[in-house]
């Protein structure tokens, strides 16, 4: 199991880093919502190695059988390696490539909100979002959030893959 997790986890790790950085660098002129969709798509592509890792373990290392629990365990471990890759890429982006990302994102979000809210509602939301960005806008925290998001999506993919691939 260890070799499968490392092999497919590293494939996902590298794919996650490359896809995430490529999406960020090539999508500079796209809107944040489009960049967000591309980011989630790159996470899912990177996490596809969960399915292949579980299938490899079942077929090549475990005699054609795997339980749902074992499949989820393998998938989570692979997802954690992918999450580390995406987290590192996010940290590199927010510290080296675009250290002003948090303030730019806040500014863009506030402009969008201002157009769709009443002035009183906007001022309340602006204060709330500004405080959140001050509290949680550090590069390390954003990288951790990316890691957590990838692992969460990876759990869902592990569950679905395990249900599809389980054999007793």
UniProtKB/TrEMBL annotation:
Keywords: Membrane, Transmembrane, Transmembrane helix. The chain crosses the membrane at residues 5-25, 37-54, 74-93, 141-165. InterPro entries: DUF4199 (IPR025250). It comes from the Bacteria. The keyword Transmembrane applies. The keyword Translocase does not apply. This is DUF4199 domain-containing protein.
């Amino acid at each position: 199991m260890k070799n499968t997790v490392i092999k497919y986890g590293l494939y996902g790790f590298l794919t996650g880093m490359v896809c995430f950085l490529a999406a960020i660098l090539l999508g500079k002129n796209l809107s944040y919502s489009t960049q967000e969709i591309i980011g989630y798509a790159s996470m899912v592509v990177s996490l596809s190695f969960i399915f292949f890792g579980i299938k490899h373990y079942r077929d090549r290392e475990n005699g054609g059988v795997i339980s749902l629990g074992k499949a989820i365990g393998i998938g989570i471990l692979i997802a954690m390696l992918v999450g580390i890759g995406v987290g590192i890429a996010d940290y590199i982006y927010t510290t080296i490539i675009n250290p002003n990302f948090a303030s730019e994102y806040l500014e863009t979000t506030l402009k969008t909100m201002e157009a769709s809210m009443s002035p009183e509602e906007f001022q309340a939301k602006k204060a709330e979002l500004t405080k959140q960005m001050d509290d949680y806008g550090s590069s390390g925290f954003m990288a951790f959030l990316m890691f957590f998001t990838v692992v969460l999506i990876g759990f869902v993919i592990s569950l679905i893959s395990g249900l599809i691939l389980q054999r007793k």
